[in-house]
């Protein structure tokens, strides 16, 4: 299994790729810069390693399962087996992750990560490479003018002062051109930064609006003709209040208890331990993928649903 290659591929898509029971690779964005020597470096993402982030977030296991054609559980077992092999090799060898970096133990037997630094994981900078700006040399213009004036002074129909007056507009145009290029370069750089910041703000606003719409969702069923039916009332089965806190992963909020119970039945058929969560202050009934007494279990399920299954869900702490 090419686990190291899968990690490199995921770093182009995610800022954090966690290897269960081993650690996590993280990317840190760096802005474009120009050194004093005229070297230009495009925007890039630098890779770091954090051995404290070991909790499985489902991203790597789901990707391995997709690439290898395995179930999610079998992919987890393969990752655990590979990690066990890494830990044994790390005691005497250096672990190499092509395109990412190297991990080894220092003299104090602590993990040290050395990034490779040759791969840019920032997809927005695709095609941009490091280059050195060539400085223009304007000193060659003056000798040519002086030489021309010296050799052909007898044949000239104008004085050197007039020649200088005629040449000066060209120098001004060249200076204006250089200034214009500098302004265009700076406007592109700062404009790209502004667009990136606005894109992040728009994504945050969109996420907040999605959560608000989910919590305040209503359903327009149109106008129905009046019919007479016999209704046998039965007590509403809501979430049983307990003394301890519950942490729920909410799938949807409904104004009708029937719709909420149907959603719970559907989730149970899909394999979740679904249940009705605590109702909202506005009287909405909440259907949850699961209710847990452990906050960690709820967060793991939330990450799996949102980032692995790409489905909408949100976290609720019930008190």
* Uncertain residue ranges: 155-159, 217-221, 231-238
The backbone outline, from C-alpha atoms, is: flat
Helix-strand string: HEEEEEHHEEEEHHEHEEHE
Q: How much is the average pLDDT? A: 77
Distance between the termini: 45 Å
Say how many strands there are: 13
- Largest sheet geometry: 4 strands, antiparallel
Strand order of the largest sheet: 11-12-10-13
Strand content: 15-25%
- The value of Rg in angstroms is 32 Å
Discrete helix count: 7
> Which structural category fits the helices and strands?
alpha+beta
Helix content: 40-55%
Summarize the structure.
The chain has 319 residues and is of the alpha+beta class. Helix content is 41%, strand content 20%.
Descriptive tags:
four-stranded antiparallel sheet; flat; alpha+beta; three-stranded antiparallel sheet; 7 helices; 319 residues; Alpha-Beta Plaits; single chain
How does this model look, in words?
This protein is α+β, with helices and mostly antiparallel strands. Helix content is 41%, strand content 20%. The protein has seven helices and 13 strands. A hairpin with a 4-residue loop joins strand 3 and strand 4. Mean pLDDT is 77; it is low at 155-159, 217-221 and 231-238.
